[in-house]
Amino acid sequence: MKRAMVLAAMAACVAVPASGQTDLFISEYKFNDAQMSAVRTDGTNARTLFSIPSSFWLPIGLDYDVATGRLLWMDSAGSSKIVRANANGTGLSTVVGVPGFARTISRDATGRIYFATDQTVRRVNADGSGMVTIFTGNQPGYPAGDPFVDATNGHVYVGYYGEILRMDLNGGNRKSIFTGGSTVRSIGLDVANRHLYWLDSNTNSDMLARINLDGTGFTIIDDASPLIGQSSGYISLLVDAPNNSLYYADEMVDIVYRADLDGSNRSVIFSSVSDRSPSGLALSTGAPVQGLNDCNGNGIADDIDIANGEADCDNNGVPDSCQVDPCASPVVLLDHGSNAAISTGKALGVPGSAWEVFQPFDVPPGGWTLGRIELDGFTVVIGNGLGARISIHPDDGTGTRADESVVLGEAEGVNFLFNTNLENWVGAALDADLPAGRHWVHLESIEPSVYWGSVNLGFSGLPSISRGASGTFTAPGSPIAMRLIEGGACASDYDGNGDVDILDFLDFIDDFSTCEGQASPCGAFGDPDLNGDTLVDILDFLDFFDAFGNGC
């Protein structure tokens, strides 16, 4: 009897959930009335764990140490401090006070705590000793985002000034993974599938997004308010890849969502009450364990491969053998450059205005074989994510207008990224054989009532013109930031997953004997029509080899 009572008391002390049940712990802030709450990951059994002392009313970020049964968080009410307590609220204490306005915490395999404060990322030991700075930003007025520690691979990820940076645990070996964010607030990883997720929380980018670990494959998973403009409410993200789950909090509407890794099956699993707002998330099973960062599957971490001589021409920490033309030198037919630093350009879309942009260019004798177009600009309101349509028209014979009745090439679904001060070129395949003479690139929003973007200005080129909802053209003005790339090259990433096709093909051969025609978990090519082109994948691969034999 005594043994049963002792075991029950121990369970209550560390708040261990029932067998087979996983809890999501949630910090909730409110002036002088913050609390810790929990809910089952299926949305059931929502409950309050404990009230936080009134002077600790601004918890930002949350972590759970399974070994000790303690919750850890950053409190930034007044002076910032790292706080810990048992999951029932007992034993609450301050680990260490920290300078500045600090946010979030993330721990490495030894229990060291990483946090952001002002423009820096810092680290302290589990007992609060040994504080060091591992990153300092160089843009006044721009705080560092929430650091995320990949304990398996010894990396720290952080958002700063629209970039996502990766560094070693001591801040060394820094890599720029992505430069197209706005305010990167909270990061999560799925190394096994080579994905990085983040919450971007500026007013023009309130979204949950994903990229591949090499910085390619930008995908919007969830936009906070796609049809009515943007808020800035997304605040905390937790990626539980082994269980195909995303958890993220919105402090504007005071709810926590759960969704599949691709954003599907989104549902509200927790709602704050009494004017509280969620601000941090942690699983009762601890931080999900990441896979080895090993893109080529040779059993050796990418960092070690590169240190041993594997080529990494773009210095992003991913071996070149795993990327699609990482440092290719395409034949550039036309390059206007981009004056991104001035943060102004030609409007595209805009509800009520429906701005379109027309950029003329001249093709020399002999003509051009166009294969790709690249543009630089930024999105203001993402809308429904359909982005822009890009068309190529011939001149109408006057030299001042396009003949819009003739379309020589077209691409759809081009979305600009979000940083308004850095170059972030986006591109699309656009195949067209262009004879000598004047031609026009025509940009238009697919849904101008909900999309609003801006094309940056170029340093050279013919003057561009714009047309609004009235149908009237503006006077010729500055050229737009645009590049035209010669065609004829063959696609080397057919399914767009960020892996070169030969790696996909080896995976396909490896899985074919046991996974033909089956769905997950058999592997990337279990689906008989992965890309949805109505051809079974084996026919796609025959096409791939046919192209390969023709010099591709």
Provide a descriptive summary of the structure in words.
Residues 1-19, 489-503, 510-537 and 542-552 have low confidence and may be disordered. The chain has 3 domains: 2-293, TolB, C-terminal domain (Neuraminidase), CATH 2.120.10.30; 332-486, Jelly Rolls (Sandwich); 498-549, no CATH class. β1 (23-29) and β2 form a beta hairpin. The chain is 9% helix and 38% strand. The strands form 8 sheets. Strands 25, 26, 28, 31, 33 and 35 form a 6-stranded antiparallel β-sheet that branches. Strands 30-29-32-27-34 form a 5-stranded antiparallel β-sheet, with no helix packed on it. The chain has a 4-stranded antiparallel β-sheet with strand order 3-2-1-24, with no helix packed on it. It has helices spanning 2-14, 302-307, 501-515, 537-549; strands spanning 23-29, 35-40, 47-51, 59-65, 70-75, 81-86, 93-97, 102-107, 113-117, 120-124, 132-136, 148-150, 155-160, 163-168, 175-178, 184-190, 195-200, 207-212, 219-223, 234-240, 245-250, 255-259, 267-271, 277-283, 332-335, 345-349, 356-363, 368-381, 388-394, 409-414, 425-434, 437-445, 452-456, 465-467, 482-486. The longest helix has 15 residues, at 501-515. With 552 residues, it is mainly beta.
